[in-house]
Write a structure and sequence with these properties.
4 helices, DUF4199 domain-containing protein, transmembrane helix, transmembrane
């Protein structure tokens, strides 16, 4: 196994785990009454989750010669791969926005608070800054993980298609 394929397998597993967690979290929030927000998040993370599942099938097909992909799987990998790249790009943009506007966000939060809440905010300002930085780092790493996984899946899909074409040419030559 090459490093690229190991990375592809690792990122697929990570994306399945994290995205599955967010899907369950959003499904729970939908059941508790936040239907609109939960539905948008489920659609967003659902596409990434489906892509990770299709990527796992592609990996199995590449590792086990006897395992064949369904007819619509390559098209699904392309479509969901493009969608996953968009979701990952939105996460990267979010991380950059947090970096650029963190102080402005904290000021806006402070403007909407009462005096008592503002005193509590001052005592927790360092903690809030750390939480926001952690959120920024998470968005950057997770968005990058989604994008790299999608690009690797599209690359390995091309290899799979080439392998399928080579196998068809060999079969055609044997039948002649």
């Amino acid at each position: 196994m090459t490093f690229r394929f190991k990375l592809f397998k690792a990122l697929t597993g990570i994306n399945l785990f994290i995205t599955g967690f967010f899907l369950l979290l959003n499904l729970t929030s939908m059941l508790m009454g936040a239907f609109g927000q939960g539905l948008v998040s489920i659609v967003m993370f659902g596409g990434v989750f489906i892509h990770a599942i299709l990527s796992a099938y592609l990996q199995r097909s590449l590792q086990e010669p006897g395992f064949t992909l369904k007819e619509n799987t390559p098209g699904g990998i392309r479509i969901m791969g493009g969608y996953s790249i968009l979701v990952g790009a939105f996460m990267l943009i979010g991380a950059i926005a947090i970096f650029a506007y963190k102080d402005l966000y904290l000021k806006e939060v402070a403007n909407q608070m009462t005096d008592e809440q503002l005193r509590q905010l001052d005592s927790m300002k360092g903690l809030m800054g750390k939480i926001i930085t952690a959120m920024q780092i998470f968005l950057f790493l997770y968005g990058s993980s989604i994008i790299v996984n999608a690009l690797l899946s599209l690359s390995f899909l091309q290899q799979w298609k080439k392998k399928q074409e080579d196998d068809k040419h060999i079969d055609l030559d044997l039948d002649a």
